[in-house]
Amino acid sequence: MGGDRPGAGLAGSLEGHAAMDMSVRGEGSFLARLGSGEGFTTVAHVFVMECAAPLRDLVVGLFIVGAVGAWVPDSWWHALFFSGHPVLSAVWDR
C-alpha cells in the first residue's frame, strides 16, 4: 500500500503488477508457448494476482461492516430508517 500519496514516487499495489512483463516469447504456436514452462509460470502469476486482488477488499470490507455493526447503536439505525413512524416506515419498506 505504498502508493497512497500521489507524486511520492512509490508504486502502489496495482502499479507494480502493471509494470510486469507477462508476455511469453519464443518460437512456436500460441498453444506451444502456453504449454511451456514460462507460459505455465506466467498463467500462474496472473491467476494468483487476480485471486488476491479482491481478497484484500473483502477482508477490509468485512472488518468495516463488523465495526459499524458493533459500534453504531440500534437506536441510530431505527431513527435512520424511520422504524417508529407509521407512514414513512411503510413507504420505506416497499
Structural class based on helices, strands and sheet pairing: mainly alpha
Low-pLDDT stretches? none
Strand content: under 5%
Q: Name the average pLDDT.
A: 78
Tell me what you see in this structure.
By secondary structure, this protein is an all-alpha fold. 64% of the residues lie in helices and 0% in strands. The chain has helices spanning 13-18, 30-34, 37-71, 74-80, 86-92. The model has no long low-confidence stretch (mean pLDDT 78).
Essential attributes:
94 residues, 5 helices, mainly alpha, 64% helix
Give the arrangement of secondary structure elements.
Blueprint: H1 13-18, H2 30-34, H3 37-71, H4 74-80, H5 86-92
Brief characterization of the structure:
This protein has helices spanning 13-18, 30-34, 37-71, 74-80, 86-92. It is an all-alpha fold. It is elongated.
